[in-house]
Amino acid sequence: MTKQEQHTSTKRYGMVIDLDRCTGCGACMVACYAENNVPFSKDESDKMLTLNWIRVFKVDNGKPFPDTEICYIPKPCMQCDGEHMDGHSPCVSVCPAVATDYDHLTGIVSQIYTRCFGCRYCMAACPYHARKFNWWDPVWPAEMEKYLNPDVSVRMRGVVEKCSFCYHRYQKARNKAYLEGRDEVYEDEYQPACVEACPTKAITFGDLLNPEHQVYKLSKSRKAFRLLEKLNTNPKVYYMTSKKWVRRKTDNYIENESPGETRNSSKTQKASH
Amino acid sequence: MSTQSDNQTASAVNRSSGWVIFVFFLIGLIASMITGWTAFPKLLYSTKEQPIDFSHKVHIEQLGDCRACHFFRDDGSFSGAPSLDECKDCHMYPMTGNPNEQKFIEEYIEKDKEVPWLNYAEQPPCVFFSHAAHVKGSDMQCETCHGDMGHSDSLREYQENRITGYSRDIWGYSMLPIGEAEHGPRQKMNDCAACHLKKTGSKGDCFQCHK
Amino acid sequence: MKIDRRCFLSFVIGGALGTALTPVPWKLTDDIAIWTQNWPWTPVPEEGPSIYKKSVCTICSGGGCGINVRTIKGQAKKIEGQPDYPVNRGSICPLGISATQHLYGPSRIQSPLKRAGKRGEGRWEKISWDEAISTVSEKLSALRNQKKPHTVTCIAGSDRGTVAYLLERFLTAYGSPNFIRALSSFDAYELAFSLTQGQQGTLGYDLANSDFIVSFGAELMDGWGTAGQMFSLYPGNGKKSNLVQVEPRLSDTAAMANQWIAAKPGTESALALGIAHVIVRDNLYNKNFINNHCFGFEDWEDKNGKAHQGYRSLLRQYPPAKVAETTGIDKGTIESLARGFARAKRPVAIGGRGGHLASGGLDEALAVQALNALVGNINQPGGVVVVPEPDYLSWSEMKTDKTASEGLRQPRIDEAGTDKFPNTRFLLNRIPEAINRAKGESPIQALLVTGGNPLYTMPNTEAAKKAFDKIPFIASFSTYMDETAQHADILLPNHHFLERYEDVPTPAGTPTRVIGLTRPVVKPRFDTLHIGDVIIRIAGSLGGFIGQAFPWKNYQEFLKQTLSKQWETLEKQGYWVDSEFIPPRWARAFNTPSGKYEFYPQERNNPSGKDTDALPGFRPADLPGNPDKMPLTLLPYSSIRIAGGAVANPPFMTKTVDADVIRNNDIFVELNPGTAKKLGFSEGDAAILKTPAGEARVRIHLFEGLMPGLVAMPTGLGRNAFSSYIAGKGANVNALLADIAEPGSGLNKAWASRASLVKA
């Protein structure tokens, strides 16, 4: 294998989030803020305006006390592959500036802040609310600029940002692989900050195409599902839960339709394409 | 219409002749071209001196290899210009009578202050450039991008674009992005993409080089 | 030749064409485009080699998680868990991750300060360390000259480790018995362990090896104990264990539990006794342990021949049917829970409420601990252990002068260890009353606050603040401008934990004997000093025997010498584990008068003399307030996303809080939709929450997971110090709670408060 062929081995990085293990502590969110230089403001209560690359949502089963159950759903960018698995994801297909792009080597949807001019078309197109807009210039009070991570560019007012699966960590891992003359990055060498920070190890991350990676098996488990599966956006973020009501909450179902059926039917639909 | 042409004929007497107009055209053309080609670059770039002069040649002779100072760290990242600590390994005390070394020791080593080198090849903060991919992955030589730095006896002046704040090396010294560049190839995004296209068959996706 | 308008036009056209043939327009367009992408005010973080430094996080009161801090060019960038650290095994909580925001943030005190305006006004004058230290020394010296050394009180965040050791030593040399540990949810449980087992030390629950955990309100996933450790033990993290959560609110812990049992708040001890009833009735208890290593299980006679009731006959008062009525839990549930617990291989019962610091009282702790004894899991794998202090070099030899000896003979101001509360070690909650009770001048003439931020964390906070106002001299050693520092007279800021050395002995809840080493990750950013150095310098300037008791050059030298046995290991790997520590066997484990585990704790302070008052029991707290006017019960709850203790939320943490907990500056209280309907409230309504201690403006959030009749309010909000990123958000629930001293122990029994909600 010549060295240049490294560029062509295709991966599809994805994650599987086990909702049964998520306690809703928010360590993933905080680790993401710290890793990715996500700014903050004094009032963060308007969640439509605040910046989050991953947000943990709380849902409940709506039953009265004491039959109530709650579940937390961490939601990063879904890194959609698009309907035909060709990178035609909802946001990439609408960006007029090529500021967001599907990385064919990793399957990660990129966002280049210096290229973005802030039209927010991608935000409208994203069915998962994964994209956030910088309404203000970031402010780091006192000496807080000192903790900023040089591996991730700091965004300016007027651009859209979103989860990158900590792509910079992939770049760094590849650096190391090059140095050691390896063609591949090991599974544990490239893990996003949220995955690493999850104190209950609810998130598993790796190459969905690589049978040796944990996510390969997990994503194919019967418990695994994706958000709004019906839209055929083909997200690379999978969820697992043992609670049926949680599964139902993650998509819009017609009455008497079970989540399992939908997934299978959407697969059949795809096959008939 | 007829009245108009009448007027024109009438006023033709008082008008400047065609060659005068042409002369003015030429003056405008030539003056602006001279300004654009000679004064503009001087206006656009400010010239900065490096904090101290440095001879790559002398160091290469002593140490034998670029990698003695510009090395890969264990995590695969590239060290770039050496830090003061690395310089201290040899220069804790004067090794030669060179006035630049003396200045370096007095102003930086003794005060424990990093040297604010001006980096000719500094990329914008949104760029992730992997030395490992190029040097280790594709066996490229330092000179291919940085020019023949290793044999220079003195640091050339650093030119900074007044608008962007970046080094002139990125755009290249020639004002036109054509022909061979003076100090190694130009390093704008299109230049990277052109080389990638040639070598790998693809310009690459955004995230390959952006962060 | 005539020059006219046309010549000029021609010149311009020529110029334009010429310009177009130069790089000017093309290059300028490109450069301006680049300029617009790089606003000069957008910071560009400096690149450099990443160096990971190991340390131990002590940001929360349960602190003690191993961390790896990524630094670049001497600046801390990111805090990550340290995978091999024996306490937390790589897991850390969001507060720990955001500690860099506190390090570099606006809440730091940047130099010693002297109060310039009125107390609490926030006007300060910058002073030098020499002046700060001499001010404190002069004050302390004057009090000694007046023969009042015992009026000096120190409130510390912890009573373990070398800093606490230095403080206690200082007070002893100086002549004050008043070293007080800040409130902790472990207060009651530590006392229960010491009474039943005769052992003083840290409580350890071996949750990793337990297969059946019954938690009586301990919010294990919401910040109880050492959060990182609890997460690393999360049931299902590699092992299948069974967690049963007893709590009136569907907390995150309850949501993760295999079973959630919503007992009426405050009836936890009744439930524990009901479970015990079933275990004893069905003969499911550990016969070997009960028959050979326990005292007071059966009725007994003392040496005077007086008959006493034992635990077994006490349990007759707690049949499941009655307990079901008390707790509101189905009788069958109690029965099956008891059987499940007793039949499990390694069951453990655990208590102690989470982030809010009400301990729940000794009765509850004794009742819960008795369950562990019944199944014989004391000092067993998967059970409970008392972890003794690691063996530090002791510096006992110390001379005290006459003034000091006399001062030390004075009773403690908080009455802990006095005839009134002989068993209890620290009673910070009794301080306001002690000050108010005193006639004439305040019994505390100088207060040194080295941790715990009492003016935020104490119940009935406003009353505490009024009492503190009577103390003529308050010095705070806080790193941050917290509520207590804001109310002090002089500030002697300690280094941030990422800037200093400190030892971290076994955190509460951990079953292993371990010492962690907090190490400076960055250079001190401001003109701060290590608290240990300050104490040594104050002792030095007081001179005499006090100075002699502190022969060390500085704290670091003291630390190294004290930990000389472990120092090499600590320096090398950042922690030290006592691999030889094995919990003692039952025959040698108990240091009680009977030498056995005492179901009937003979040393328990029992003013009434009745047997039932010595045994654990269900004695509901008589909460102040008229139940007709205040029909609701205010229940504080802890959220792992809101730092509820001494340290306030950094901006990152507040960012994670949902908009139905804080919106703008409004705090939401949870209310069961049924209760809300009765009271006429709907989602988002503004209301005034009133309790006997005070009132607060709140908004209503409907939550089905809360028991009807309760109002749940998060801890950690309503700060008025730190920085403008947290101050002014919501209300402090501690300020709405009462303090009810449990007879005999003096611990605060008020886990909640009566409350009413009216429309605002």
The total beta strand count of chain B reads: 2
Q: Provide the domain count of chain C.
A: 4
Helical fraction of chain C equals 25-40%
SS field, number of helical segments of chain C: 28
Report helical residue fraction of chain B.
Answer: 40-55%
Largest sheet of chain B: 2 strands, antiparallel
Low-confidence runs of chain C: none
Along the chain, the helix and strand elements of chain B come as: HHEHHHHHEHH
* Number of E-state strands of chain C: 30
Q: How many helical elements of chain B?
A: 9
Q: What keyword list fits this structure?
A:
heterotrimer, A: 273 residues, alpha+beta, Alpha-Beta Plaits, four-stranded mixed beta sheet, two-stranded antiparallel ribbon, 10 strands, globular, disordered C terminus, B: 211 residues, mainly alpha, 9 helices, 44% helix
Please characterize this protein's 3D structure.
- The complex is a heterotrimer of chains A (273), B (211) and C (760).
- Helices cover 23% and strands 14% of the residues of chain A.
- With 273 residues, chain A is an alpha+beta fold.
- Chain A has a single domain, classed as Alpha-Beta Plaits.
- The longest helix of chain A has 14 residues, at 259-272.
- Chain B has 211 residues and is mainly alpha-helical.
- Chain B has helices at residues 2-12, 18-44, 56-63, 84-91, 99-109, 131-137, 142-146, 168-171, 189-200; strands at 45-48, 158-161.
- Chain B has a two-stranded antiparallel ribbon with strand order 1-2.
- Chain C is of the alpha/beta class.
- Chain C has a seven-stranded mixed beta sheet, covered by helices on one side.
- The longest helix of chain C has 17 residues, at 129-145.
- The model of chain C has no long low-confidence stretch (mean pLDDT 93).
- Chains in contact: A-B, A-C, B-C.
- At the A-C interface, α1, β2, β3 and α5 of A face β3, α4, α8, α9 and α27 of C.
Write the layout of secondary structure elements.
The complex is a heterotrimer of chains A (273), B (211) and C (760).
Chain A (H helix, E strand, L loop, with lengths): L12 E6 L8 H9 L19 E6 L9 E6 L14 H5 L5 E3 L6 E3 L9 H5 L6 E2 L26 E2 L5 H13 L13 H5 L5 E5 L6 H6 L4 E2 L11 E4 L3 H6 L9 H14 L1
Parallel strand pairs in A: 1-10
Antiparallel strand pairs in A: 1-8, 2-3, 4-5, 6-7, 9-10
Chain B lengths: L1 H11 L5 H27 E4 L7 H8 L20 H8 L7 H11 L21 H7 L4 H5 L11 E4 L6 H4 L17 H12 L11
Antiparallel strand pairs in B: 1-2
Chain C lengths: L4 H16 L3 H14 L12 E8 L7 E8 L2 E7 L12 H4 L1 H6 L8 E3 L8 E3 L2 H17 L6 E5 L4 H14 L4 E3 L5 H11 L4 E4 L6 E5 L10 H6 L9 E5 L5 H5 L2 E3 L6 H14 L5 H7 E2 L4 E2 L5 E2 L2 H5 L4 H8 L3 H13 L3 E4 L11 H13 L9 E4 L14 H8 L21 H7 L8 E4 L4 H4 L3 H9 L4 E3 L6 H4 L3 E2 L10 E4 L8 E5 L12 H12 L1 H5 L6 H8 L4 H7 L1 E3 L8 H4 L7 E2 L12 H4 L17 E6 L13 H6 L5 E2 L2 E6 L1 H7 L6 E6 L2 E9 L7 E5 L38 E7 L1
